[in-house]
Amino acid sequence: MASKAAARARFLNSPVNHFYMMIISTSVLVVLGLIMVFSASSIHAIDTKGYAFAVVLRQFIFLLAGVPFAIWLARAPLKYWTTAARLGLVISLILVVIVMIPGVGKEVNGNRNWIDLKVIDVQPGEFVKFFLILWASYMLARKETSERTQFNVIALIGPGFLLVIAAIMRGGDLGTTSVIAAIAAGLLFVSGVELRKLGWVAAAGFVALAAGIVTSDYRRARFLVFLNPFAPNEYKNFGWQPAHSLLGLASGGLFGVGLGGSRQKWGNLAEAHTDFIFSVIGEELGLFGTLSVLILIGTLIYSIFRIALRAKDPFSRYVCAGIGCWIGVQAILNIGTAISVLPVVGVTLPLVSYGGSALLTTICALGFVAGVALRDKEVSKELIRRFVKK
Questions:
Q1: Cα 158 from Cα 165, distance rounded (Å)
Q2: How far apart are alpha carbons 216 and 251 in whole angstroms?
Q3: Could you tell me the CA-to-CA distances from 56 to 44, 289, 352 in Å, in that order?
Q4: Which ranges of 226-355 does DSSP label H, i.e. alpha helix?
Q5: 6 lies in a domain?
Q6: Residue 208: inside a domain
Q7: Residue 352 counted as domain residue
Q8: Do 324 and 305 meet the contact criterion of CB atoms below 8 Å apart?
Q9: Per-residue pLDDT reduced to its tens digit, 179-208
């Protein structure tokens, strides 16, 4: 027993294994995502496009574009990243302002958070998450390496995040706002802000969230219904999707009804391949499938933070931590929505749900993390020993 524990500890403490864990978990999640997007979207694709592969084909195209780009980003020198990071806030503001331009911005499900490029629609909020992480990490790292030992990190990055959040909320996108606010809180925590101050920031954030919910009839109804989606007066309205998400999960059993056998995707879950793909996984692959997804996402987040802890420069450390917070919080929001412990906020399950912008941005962000791992001398030395000198 002691030898097994020691072997497990050696495995988890090996830097190159953190790199492997990230690459393998990412790859499995992406492949599983393609399979489940096809299964969950096939009926919708036939109804809207005329053939079953319409949705998953777009996802696959974004994947083909994203993987080589992420590989290139992993090999990019750190100075290129810092150059992009300096402009991160400006780029983020430009992206959220473009959405407001009539004829350019597109409204979907009550949220004006898309750019209509005629051939495809792009969700700039996904890119904003990454650019804000880069910008905030650059600011925090610059202050950390400066001669000033005391500085107010809340005042340093808070106004920038608030500007972007205010612009996004004008379009009604509460989901993206929640993720960005959580990223800001995560970076503040990592930077060493006192818990008392962080608590005040969190309290202010919850008050703002409550105000955003109360001032919108649509958001208020979606928030209240998650407590009991089967309520007679709500079931056929705002409770419909969370209720049928629970029905799908409940009918999956241990190993599911079989791949492609979901009944809820036949019109009951309008967002089966995006917001509620976790429910389809639970219905078709059962408890085994949902636990596998949780393990894979947990492994990915764990590996990202372990890579962050070994980063030699503060900028890389902050960016990796921000990416870990982003993926973790977004997964919690998506899965919490599917199991109806959180209100529907409309965010995707990272690497799994349909969404070209989300998939492309997440893969590029993971390309940065891979680059940080590869700059670790111990990791690069071990990879050369295993794959080059054989």
A1: 10
A2: 34
A3: 11, 20, 11
A4: 240-252, 277-310, 314-338
A5: no
A6: yes
A7: yes
A8: yes
A9: 999 999 999 998 888 888 888 888 887 787
